[in-house]
Specification:
By secondary structure, the chain is of the alpha+beta class. It has a domain of 90 residues. 27% of the residues lie in helices and 15% in strands. A 3-stranded antiparallel beta sheet has the order 1-2-3. Strand 2 and strand 3 form a beta hairpin. The longest helix has 16 residues. The radius of gyration is 23 Å and the shape is extended. The N and C termini lie far apart (75 Å).
């Protein structure tokens, strides 16, 4: 399992194609983005100041949210084919009966590839937002792909006009 606090490469962009039709080098993209955001890579990344045993307890709890029968998102993820970690939440809006819901999680649990955060206004609870996170993860891991077959055998026919 990866240790939280280690610098991980995160990207939303798979590739960029220049006007000449060629891929723009990753380093060039990073340089442009960092300049626009004012990020200086000379700044040293600091490790998360959390004791390892506390971090493991948090991760175990997040896994339980989706994999143990008492977990707030268990009913959503109980049939998910891989272990994931998650946390549900809700926030009062100040309007009677209106509660925003959110879910955050990552998958797979042992070697994370994707992290998802979902916030839905007036969702009622965080558990209600987990459905959206599950669909995002299913799409990411190719679980929504359905095999479609089509019969392309030509059937001879003739048409006549008068």
């Amino acid at each position: 399992m990866q240790t939280i606090g280690e610098p991980q490469e995160v990207t939303l962009i798979k590739s960029v194609t220049g006007t000449n039709g060629e891929d723009v080098p990753k380093e060039e993209i990073e340089k442009e983005v960092n300049e626009r955001l004012g990020i200086d890579h000379r700044t040293k990344l600091e490790k998360l100041n959390v004791k390892e045993e506390n971090l493991q307890a948090i991760l175990k709890g997040m896994k339980g949210v989706t994999s143990e029968s008492g977990g707030t998102a268990y009913y959503i993820f109980s049939d998910f084919p891989m272990d994931i970690a998650g946390k549900t939440g809700s926030a009062e809006t100040g309007i009677d009966g209106k509660v925003n819901g959110w879910f955050t999680g990552f998958a797979p649990y042992d070697n994370p590839e994707i992290a998802v955060v979902v916030l839905i206004e007036n969702a009622g609870s965080g558990g209600n937002t987990a459905v959206v996170a599950k669909e995002i993860m299913k799409e990411y891991f190719g679980m929504n792909v359905k095999k479609v077959t089509e019969n392309v055998t030509a059937i001879p026919s003739t048409e006549g006009t008068r």
